[in-house]
Amino acid sequence: MRTALLLAALAVCVTGACSYKVLCIFAAPAKSADHLAQGFVRALLKAGHEVTWATPHPEKKAPHQNLTLIDLKETRNSLAGVDMTRQQNTGIAAIRGYARNVSRTAADCPELRKALVEQQFDAVISTWFMNEYEAGYAAVQQVPWLLLSSVVIHPHLEAMVGQVHSIPSVPVMVNESDIPMSAWRRWLNGLIYMLMNIDGWFDVPRQAIIYEEIHAPLAAARGVPLPSYYDAVKNVSFLFVNSHESIAPALSLPPNVLNIAGYHIDDDPPPLPKDLQDLLDNSKNGVIYFSMGSVVQSAGLAETTRAGLLNIFAKLPYTVLWKFEEPLKDLPKNVHVRPWLPQPSILSHPNLRLFITHGGQLSCLEAIHAGVPMLAVPVFGDQPANAERARKLGYALTVDFHKNLVENLEVTLNEMLGNDTYYKRAKYLSKDVPS
Ligand SMILES: *[C@@H]1O[C@H](CO)[C@@H](O)[C@H](O)[C@H]1NC(C)=O
Ligand SMILES: *[C@@H]1O[C@H](CO)[C@@H](O)[C@H](O)[C@H]1NC(C)=O
Ligand SMILES: *[C@@H]1O[C@H](CO)[C@@H](O)[C@H](O)[C@H]1NC(C)=O
Ligand SMILES: *[C@@H]1O[C@H](CO)[C@@H](O)[C@H](O)[C@H]1NC(C)=O
Ligand SMILES: *[C@@H]1O[C@H](CO)[C@@H](O)[C@H](O)[C@H]1NC(C)=O
């Protein structure tokens, strides 16, 4: 169903024959971004389109007759070594800095430049990551630009598609609120909306400069005029948003905006490796799965926090499976760590009791899809807002990452394990999120 929607939407944008040449530029190096991209490319290939996919993770992609990969591995360096558990690394200016590094690094890739200059595509698809200047790729090709957002819709995206935000009725993404909002919250909502827009306006001249730097040479090489940044950035043919009415406030959207949350989720996740399958099968009391995602590394936690958490886990009658990037010494018997874990397959195991997570949008969707309650420890970006929405939906509780993490996590963990309200609510809601 999701696949059908995606393709119908694509067909609306690109009229003509039934097989198209699509250029996907998904430069963000995070693993989660790659999962979303994968869902997109899979659907395009299945429908018989020819896809050229510029990706930071080309090595693990299955070959396909109609798939050409462009290697953007270099962009992985722009985030490597940045510790996202440090607050100074997660401010809006810092995140814009990474986004810029990623975009410039991708734009320097000779293979991508060659494809843009020498080939003619029918559409260009890219992901929004504070990188509005990537509008230039479709402009240089003079074809429709399709945009994918990994997070729920927010004022920056709204400005691009001409969405008029209903300030009195819809809380803006970064500051979740009960609906209907009180008079004070409406006022605050308006203020936050305004500040985000002003922040966006201040950034426009810088975006325009990067746009020219990246795209003017490409346009010249193709012998086409480059539209102004201001025209190109408003020329979004279609916007796919990784959100859904069942998890975020319902709001009116322009007809070229579609919520597609859950589309990356496989209804039948791949089987677990034997060791994990045995471990989960044999954990009769239940399993707690702990992962801070791919950008925030558990290995970045302070030594005392690490020890404190292990201490809490040791006291539990459950198996704890922790995605931890380094080997850990002196592990309690019931705690198992791995540098990488197949999240969707773990979440769908019937013995899973609870998911301790950073509250990334994909993790929230996968948890709710599998009907697993969450204890969210949001760190930055959209995570606090995602966690807050999950709490309001009744299948999650949240704990502050930066203040007394160990103490608060213990209290909340015991609350959630001793009260099946959250578990039942997650199971109930799991019927709502599509895949
Ligand atoms: C590849 O694309 C062509 C159309 O260009 C289509 O006929 C063919 O079925 C596609 N191959 C696969 C394996 O999907
Ligand atoms: C971006 O990359 C440059 C050089 O590659 C580096 O000096 C700079 O620190 C990076 N900025 C961020 C915010 O990562
Ligand atoms: C806007 O997109 C259309 C394709 O959808 C393209 O033909 C047109 O040239 C674009 N205009 C600008 C200003 O980029
Ligand atoms: C929303 O804003 C209020 C007031 O500034 C703040 O107390 C609250 O933590 C914010 N909520 C989220 C989810 O950001
Ligand atoms: C369980 O949690 C729900 C939701 O927070 C709360 O309303 C209820 O009182 C709790 N039950 C017990 C026995 O603590």
From TrEMBL:
<comment type="similarity">
    <text>Belongs to the UDP-glycosyltransferase family.</text>
</comment>
<dbReference type="Pfam" id="PF00201">
    <property type="entry name" value="UDPGT"/>
</dbReference>
<dbReference type="InterPro" id="IPR050271">
    <property type="entry name" value="UDP-glycosyltransferase"/>
</dbReference>
<keyword id="KW-0328">Glycosyltransferase</keyword>
<feature type="signal peptide">
    <location>
        <begin position="1"/>
        <end position="19"/>
    </location>
</feature>
<dbReference type="InterPro" id="IPR002213">
    <property type="entry name" value="UDP_glucos_trans"/>
</dbReference>
<dbReference type="GO" id="GO:0016020">
    <property type="term" value="C:membrane"/>
</dbReference>
<dbReference type="InterPro" id="IPR035595">
    <property type="entry name" value="UDP_glycos_trans_CS"/>
</dbReference>
<dbReference type="GO" id="GO:0015020">
    <property type="term" value="F:glucuronosyltransferase activity"/>
</dbReference>
<keyword id="KW-0808">Transferase</keyword>
<protein>
    <recommendedName>
        <fullName>UDP-glucuronosyltransferase</fullName>
        <ecNumber>2.4.1.17</ecNumber>
    </recommendedName>
</protein>
<keyword id="KW-0732">Signal</keyword>
